[in-house]
Design brief:
The complex is a heterodimer of chains A (399) and B (95). Chain A folds into four domains: 1-164, Alpha-Beta Plaits, CATH 3.30.70.270; 170-223, DNA polymerase, domain 1 (Orthogonal Bundle), CATH 1.10.150.20; 240-338, DNA polymerase, Y-family, little finger domain (Dna Ligase, domain 1); 349-396, no CATH class. Chain A is built from 14 helices and 14 strands. Chain A has helices spanning 11-19, 45-49, 58-64, 75-92, 114-132, 144-153, 167-171, 183-191, 197-201, 205-212, 216-223, 253-268, 306-317, 349-368; strands at residues 2-7, 28-31, 40-43, 69-71, 96-98, 103-108, 137-141, 159-161, 240-250, 276-287, 292-303, 326-338, 376-380, 392-396. Chain A is globular, with a radius of gyration of 26 Å. By secondary structure, chain B is mainly β. Chain B has one domain. A seven-stranded antiparallel sheet of chain B has the order 2-8-7-6-5-4-3, with no helix packed on it. The chains are: A alpha+beta (399), B mainly beta (95). Chains A and B meet through strand 13 and strand 14 of A and strand 1 of B. Strand 14 (392-396) of chain A pairs antiparallel with strand 1 (15-16) of chain B.
Chain lengths: 399, 95
């Protein structure tokens, strides 16, 4: 298999510069002001060069770079642009897997020669430029890691093809900082003076595993240009979505809940929702003065009733503290599932309802803790035994 | 006859209740507990309220042979301890 990786470095910054070209060449950072996280989310290479880092408190970033241009995040704009980027790539090659925002992988013709592969990658870069307006770089390799690293080291607008069999030689001179492994592993690379990927590849697998634990095998394989992570093209899921303009910009959660109720009711009426339940929903709020807010929520169990969906939206909207008044609300139903019947009890309805709630809570706990039941019940084993520990035991409360 | 709880037992998921916990015990010349270390604090035994012996599971490879003591400690605290007779180790157990 041959994969192309298309990546836009500092994707969010590139998007901000796209709508404000005056920001080009200036130190720019995106950060969520209070009551948000109050830290840098992304920054331009100019800001990085001056010491600004993602995760840094905004106050520190401003102290280090007094003329830093600090922008509030616009998640809806970024997310729509990421979708546009994927659509643009999908227009050129049918099988596309989304990576981090601003990065995607596409399967290209495995029988094409090196020149044709470079042309295919260049075509993808052009598609991204035409479709979303940002300049990407591309890399082609036999696996996701090789394609990604080739795209990362190539210049904007260009593509690097790593021929089959040349993977190890290609990654060998590169810094170990390129390896997509844990922070702890990177700390150990510095500790052991492992500066290039080739330094790791030269070691036998045993000592690498001994020093890096469960991650050791993967580090060693990647250093030798071997990546076994599968390519999973995205599936086109049916979506039901709708938007609503607020009659007047508002920060009132009551008004937002009413709007959400109307929107949810309208979406549930759509023919696509017939015999379907909602598994996941995404709520987007466009704020006055170009800011935005977005959350994607996976529901505990699929819902198809308005009251249930409104309850979830209410929980989302009530505690919300927004940076500005909401102008527009958009709601999307994602991950639609087929309707399933629920057996309800005619008798003892209250007990049945309580038991169903309890079982749902237990099921949720079990899922949360990786399938291990967290609730136990006491069972009699040998209650007649003279040995105390033989009499009773705890057993998982099975569902 | 014990009432069937109605649930299938999966013995590998069973966690016994009232399992014994290791205990440090000082004994007198007759082998009777004189002081025990409960929760890291050494407490004097004020009186031995009861003692009994259990010999069970003699058909197994490691038969059970225990000498139980119900002890009153300082501060009116009552604990049940036993000595594993084959090994000699002391254990604290809720009886």
């Amino acid at each position: 298999m041959r994969l192309a990786c298309i990546t836009v470095p500092n994707f969010r910054i590139a998007l901000e510069r796209l709508r404000a070209p005056g920001l080009a060449g200036r130190p720019v950072a995106i950060g969520e002001p209070p009551p948000g996280a109050n830290q840098v989310i992304d920054c331009s290479p100019e800001a990085s060069a001056l010491g600004v880092r993602a995760g840094m408190p905004l106050r520190d970033a401003r102290t280090i770079v007094p003329d830093l241009v600090l922008l509030p995040p616009d998640p809806v704009y970024y997310s729509r642009s990421a979708d546009a980027l994927l659509d643009a790539i999908e227009g050129a090659e049918p099988y596309v897997e989304p990576g981090d925002p601003g990065t995607a992988f596409a399967a290209i013709d495995p029988h094409a020669n090196e020149t044709a592969q470079a042309d295919a990658a260049a075509r993808l870069v052009r598609s991204v430029l035409d479709g979303s307006g940002v300049e990407a770089s591309a890399g082609v390799g036999g696996s996701k890691f090789i394609a990604w690293i080739a795209a990362t080291v190539s210049a904007p607008g260009e593509a690097i093809v790593v021929p089959t069999g040349r993977e190890r030689a290609f990654v060998a001179p590169l810094s170990t900082s390129f390896l997509p492994v844990s922070y702890e592993a990177h700390r150990k690379f510095a500790l052991y003076s492992l500066q290039t990927i080739g330094d790791i590849a030269a070691l036998p697998v045993g000592p690498v595993q001994a020093q890096f634990g469960s991650e050791g095998q993967r580090i060693w394989s990647l250093a030798r240009g071997i990546d076994t992570w599968p390519f999973r093209p995205r599936e086109r899921a049916t979506q039901v979505s709708g938007t609503m303009q607020m009659p007047a910009p508002t920060v009132n959660s009551g008004a937002l809940i009413i709007a959400a109720r109307q929107l949810a009711g309208r979406l549930l009426q759509q023919p696509a929702m017939r015999y379907r339940q909602v598994r996941q929903l995404r709520l987007r709020l466009l704020l006055l003065d170009s800011g935005s807010w977005e959350r994607t929520l996976t529901l505990r169990e699929p819902l198809s009733d308005e009251a249930g969906i409104v309850f979830v939206l209410k929980k989302l909207l009530e505690p919300l503290q927004l940076a500005g008044p909401v102008e527009e609300m958009a709601l999307e139903f994602l991950g639609l599932a087929s309707e399933t019947g629920k057996q309800r009890s005619l008798l003892f309805a209250e007990q049945a309802r309580r038991r169903a709630q309890l079982l749902a809570a237990l099921r949720q706990l079990k899922t949360h803790f990786g399938g291990e039941s967290q609730v136990a019940r006491v069972v009699e084993v040998e209650p007649w035994s003279r040995i105390p520990e033989r009499r009773y035991a705890l057993i998982d409360y099975d569902l | 006859m014990v009432k069937d709880p109605g649930a299938a037992l999966r013995t590998h998921r069973l966690r016994p209740l009232a399992g014994p916990r290791p205990l440090r015990v000082e004994t007198d010349a007759h082998g009777c507990p004189r002081a025990v270390a409960v929760e890291g604090i050494v407490r004097e035994v004020t009186s031995v309220q009861d003692r009994w012996r259990i010999d069970d599971e003699w058909w197994r490879e490691t038969p059970v042979s225990r000498m139980y003591y119900q002890l009153q400690l300082g501060g009116d605290r009552v604990v049940t301890v036993y000595q594993d007779l084959p090994g000699g180790a002391w254990w604290l157990q809720r009886y």
